[in-house]
Amino acid sequence: MTVPSPREVLRRQVYMPWALIPAGRMVELPGRGSTYVTDTAGPTPDAPTLVLLHAVGCTGLLTWYPAIQPLSRRFRVVTMDQRWHGRGIQSPQFSLHDCADDVAALVETLELRHVVVGGYSMGSIVAQRVWRQHPDRIEGLVLCATTDRFRSSVAERVFHQGLEVAMVGARGLSRSRTAVKAARTAARALDMEPSDIHDWAMAELRSTSPWAVGQALAALGRHHSRPWLDRIDVPTAVVVTLRDKVLDPDNQIALARRIPGATIHDIDAGHASCVLEAETFVPALVEAATTVDARRRDLSRH
């Protein structure tokens, strides 16, 4: 009996929506490093900008590719690979604080205007921190499949504490070898024509090393934004994934209610809905982003 390859399993069992994959480029963030960025024009030169931050273990394109074209009817849409992911910045350490600073540096480097930051799962955590660390850089937030902390249950606490211990024990491994391997994998992905969406998705997934995913998960386990959520003063929308088995939907709703004036856009979908249930997720995302932009414009007139 022939054992199917991961590629064959992916093809047979995982639905991947087809969409145009925009071309990107490496962008140097002064003093920080280089990262892979896509920049899709909006309907007019003065369209507001939506900066999209991806989930853990993914890339900017893998998380957001089904949504880019629909969003570009209203926004200039920018995606980036966050550090240690895909073709993102390789650094000695990973921290959510640095990820938020990277976003602010990208906004400055590309001279982006009227910026709304959108994030999915890990990306939503970084988006929260962008407001916390650089409130003058952004004018709105769209948080998807989000939370204010990852240790809200006994199971989550045990998982994240165990992961931190494992990461400490693994510090003797060569980080440089891991970085080189990830960079080579990313280079192969860069040269690939995405004629088959499953092959392209597999290449994007492989461009982030397991080491990087572990470090990012450990950092997420230390996140806690509840003490300052009620101080967020930009228009915010929260897309809640009601069938989420990773981040409790009740916690997602509770987070939204802690942010003054945040709108809730709930969908009957799971944690991977940004791609696997894109037909449900993308319209809710467009609605959430449009709501934030309308409120942003209203505030600018007063």
TrEMBL record:
Domain AB hydrolase-1: from-to ranges: 48-276
InterPro entries: AB_hydrolase_1, AB_hydrolase_fold, AB_hydrolase_sf
Pfam families, per database record: Abhydrolase_1
Protein name from the UniProt record: AB hydrolase-1 domain-containing protein
Protein source organism: Nocardioides koreensis
